[in-house]
Write a sequence for this structure.
């Protein structure tokens, strides 16, 4: 089987924040970073969900504070659009 080592996938990263901001960026390089247009303040109710609407197949992991904020939002209003 032939595999080209320089072949890279373009990966869509979507997100939604507790403030209702929704966005998307395409990762086109082997390593990339991006900044949210609306920085999170780190409060216990401030969260971000990556892969919003599950646009791609990849796993995400968050800092403990973000997991807690997501869980709290779902407990308070289980129909919240996350």
């Amino acid at each position: 089987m032939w595999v080209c080592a320089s072949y890279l996938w373009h990966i869509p990263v979507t997100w939604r924040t507790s403030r209702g901001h929704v966005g998307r960026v395409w990762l086109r390089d082997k390593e990339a970073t991006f900044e949210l247009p609306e920085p999170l303040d780190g409060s216990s109710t401030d969260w971000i969900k990556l892969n919003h609407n599950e646009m791609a197949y990849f796993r995400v992991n968050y800092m403990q504070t973000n997991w807690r904020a997501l869980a709290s939002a779902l407990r308070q209003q289980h129909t919240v659009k996350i």
In short: Residues 11-76 form one domain. Residues 64-76 form the longest helix (13 residues). The longest strand covers residues 11-17.
